[in-house]
UniProtKB/TrEMBL annotation:
This is S41 family peptidase. Residues 145-220 form the PDZ domain. It comes from the Bacteria. InterPro entries: ClpP/crotonase-like_dom_sf (IPR029045), PDZ (IPR001478), PDZ_sf (IPR036034), Pept_S41_N (IPR041613), Tail-specific_protease (IPR005151). Coiled coil: none annotated. Residues 1-18 form the signal peptide. Keywords: Signal. CDD domains: Peptidase_S41_CPP_like. PANTHER family: CARBOXY-TERMINAL PROCESSING PROTEASE CTPA, TAIL-SPECIFIC PROTEASE. The keyword Calcium does not apply. Pfam families: PDZ, Pept_S41_N, Peptidase_S41.
Amino acid sequence: MTYQLRKATSLFSSLLLAGLLSSCGGGGSSNSSSADLCSTNSALCSVAGNGNGNNGSNGNNSGTGTPTGSTIGAPSVYANVCTPSVEKNWVRAHLNDVYLWYKQIVDVPPANYSTPQLYFDALLVKKNDRFSFTAPKDEIDGYFEAGEDVSFGYKLVNQNNQLRVTYVQPNSPADLQQIKRGAQIVGLNGTPIGQVGYDAQVAALYPTSSQTTTRFEIKDVGASATRIVEMKAATVVTQPVLQSKIITTAESRRLGYLVFTDHIATASDPLVNSLRNFKQQGIDDLVIDLRYNGGGYIYIANEVASMIAGSKAQGRVFEQLQYNDKHSDWTADSKFFFTNKSRSGQDLPQLNLSRVFVLTSARTCSASESIINGLSPFVQVITIGGTTCGKPYGFSQTDNCGTAYFAIEFDGINDAGKGGYVNGFAPTCPATDDLEHELGSLSERLLANAASYSKSGTCAPSGIAVPAAPFQINGTIIDPDPHPWRNNRIRK
């Protein structure tokens, strides 16, 4: 793991920097020896506020405190020294080291930004990058390793200015209140949702504390009236494989159907068990529902693709990561191969499929797109739904002072050398999401299209429909989910 290698020097660097800052006057004293040390460690003393470094653009001393050129230094020099000025210098050094577009960064004065996280965001090359982000380390670790997340347990989508539920996690507060797919949220805490401001919507819909309670007005699918539901947030344990079953169509075709929502560590075992069952029971086609899967760990995507493709792809490249020109060694050492073993060492069932159906939407992102791209040289991938999000990039988690930083570090290509799908993968068979029917129902539009193609070998005549308008809303509804870490490709 590249980010672990970078972490390895952090303690030594922190101790070293603490001593140097004290010598440079960071501890409040000054003498001739500190002046001598500062003259040879200008970047460090610039951090401490002595103003002895070349901080202006193009190496000129503008007095802005903006580190450029030789003053940027190595991130290890500043790591885990948790004062705002030093953290900002770590941010600049980190981006200068690993960021895929480090040459295009436009420097800005760090003093203009109140936190290191805001400074990080200001340095990103936004014309290329809509994905880099920061988040509290504990929040990230809890979610990607254990699937734990403080929430009400639903996932929402803004469909024609109607905020609707796409699915609900089992045993969550939403599940206990019998909220189902397709339900519309029409009011929050006694106020019509269209009259609730953006920040208030986020706070009410996406709690950050288990002490948060929100009163919802809900209109269920098929109901003639709304109902009031009060929910208290809880730590919800995500079930990343929501459904795994074999569906028999009217034509007696057996479809293995899998709803896979998150590439998190706890997904590996249920994915392996599901695909092993499909192999043992026998299926005519596999339908993997990734329409709400924003990505996660690459190794999980690698395992899924390896089981689908089977022995014909064994040992071939699933994904080659490509870093910036400072890290050609990382690039050379960053190939994910199709395999018959999981990361934990268990045997992966080999389905050896010639084709696979993938249900997609604009929320099919990153590691989910890796499955599509990685399989395409070996398996016919038939996508049904909407164009995917278009994120051929990824990163490693790098922690500093309690914050997890995710700066885009690499892009990925498949065995045929293809990647760069910044506009997403257009669907083989376009179809609009169908919130009027439950996932796994052959009446649900995307799955019905897959079943039709499985029989006929062609797209259904029309998969496009105008969504129903169960309750008219006046005002603006947010476009959730305000959690950027759900749309990612993470190397671990």
